[in-house]
């Protein structure tokens, strides 16, 4: 009597995969992932964890401004990490600010990914004049720094729609600005992968079967380009968070009533010489740690997906 053997589930295949094996044997990767996951969970639970809501202007008391951390002289037990110039609890503001920074980072990378996949796939698959035009356009954009593109685009938005409109839709604007500024990184990498993949037999077989170009591009070629996309996405999230922080520091980011990590650092920088170092120091440490663990995860992913680099 024949017994049919069921195929292993996705979870069973994942438990036996080399990816999980390498992860569980790499202490740096495990630590980085644990710290990053902590950041994400804490940020999502900010309304529950935070002692106060820094976005609720009615709850603020200007008399509580620039109070040092609770363990210092003149500190207040209500404010563990002190307060900023508007009397907002630094700890609460960092929780809400981290959520905003992560949200902008992930959404900006999603936009970069969308643009980069479409442009990179089209450029690599069709080649010829389409490839030349799209890649020259990407080269022109890459000749400018990300911050220069972001500053120009944000300045145009402010001049065209006014400061009030920009402040109201600041998160959307930052996502669009950072997404537009960074898509060439994806497009060039995906194009290189497509040029290698489209010469393989499975692509020729799909053409012989009469499949149309969009189906071949998205159903057959794209899944085989996911490894470099995953590595770039990890690094680009860190870059997007840093770009948002830099724009907020320059006054082109989020408004004062919606502080992110970058705007907190900017606010505190004006008071750091007066002795209120905690307004900048604590958000700065959180920003550096967040970007560091994301970059460490990106480096680990790059090594794992490239066996020639991975040393175990």
From TrEMBL:
The keyword Membrane applies. Its main location: membrane. The chain crosses the membrane at residues 28-50, 104-128, 140-159, 165-183, 221-242, 277-298. It is a multi-pass membrane protein. PROSITE patterns: ABC_TM1. It is found in: Cell membrane. GO terms for biological process: transmembrane transport. CDD domains: TM_PBP2. Residues 98-298 form the ABC transmembrane type-1 domain. Keywords: Cell membrane, Membrane, Transmembrane, Transmembrane helix, Transport. The keyword Manganese does not apply. One of its GO terms (cellular component) is plasma membrane. InterPro entries: BP-dependent_transpt_permease (IPR050366), MetI-like (IPR000515), MetI-like_sf (IPR035906), OppC_N (IPR025966). Belongs to the binding-protein-dependent transport system permease family. This is Dipeptide transport system permease protein DppC.
């Amino acid at each position: 009597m024949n017994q049919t053997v069921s195929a292993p589930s996705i979870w069973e295949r994942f438990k036996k995969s080399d990816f999980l094996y390498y992860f569980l044997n790499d202490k740096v990767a495990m630590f980085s992932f644990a710290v990053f996951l902590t950041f994400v969970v804490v940020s999502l639970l900010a309304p529950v964890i935070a002692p106060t809501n820094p976005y609720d202007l009615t709850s603020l008391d200007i008399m509580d401004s620039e109070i040092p951390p609770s363990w210092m002289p003149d500190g207040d037990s209500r404010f563990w990490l002190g307060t900023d110039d508007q009397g907002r609890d630094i700890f609460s503001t960092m929780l809400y600010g981290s959520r905003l920074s992560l949200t902008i980072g992930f959404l900006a990378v999603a936009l970069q990914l969308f643009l980069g996949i479409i442009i990179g796939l089209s450029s690599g698959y069709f080649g010829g004049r389409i490839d030349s035009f799209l890649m020259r356009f990407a080269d022109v954009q890459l000749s400018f720094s990300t911050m220069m593109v972001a500053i120009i685009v944000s300045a145009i938005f402010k001049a065209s729609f006014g400061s009030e409109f920009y402040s109201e839709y600041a998160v959307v604007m930052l996502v669009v600005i950072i997404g537009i500024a960074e898509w060439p990184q994806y497009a060039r990498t995906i194009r290189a992968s497509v040029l290698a993949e489209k010469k393989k037999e499975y692509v020729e077989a799909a053409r012989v079967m009469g499949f149309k170009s969009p189906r071949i591009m998205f159903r057959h070629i794209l899944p085989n380009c996911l490894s470099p996309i995953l590595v770039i996405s990890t690094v680009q999230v860190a870059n997007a968070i840093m770009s948002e922080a830099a724009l907020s520091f320059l006054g082109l980011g989020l408004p004062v009533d919606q502080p992110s990590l970058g705007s907190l650092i900017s606010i505190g920088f004006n008071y750091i010489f007066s002795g209120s170092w905690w307004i900048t120091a604590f958000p700065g440490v959180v920003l550096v740690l967040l970007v560091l663990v994301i970059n460490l995860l990106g480096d680990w992913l790059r090594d794992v997906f490239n066996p020639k680099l991975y040393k175990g």
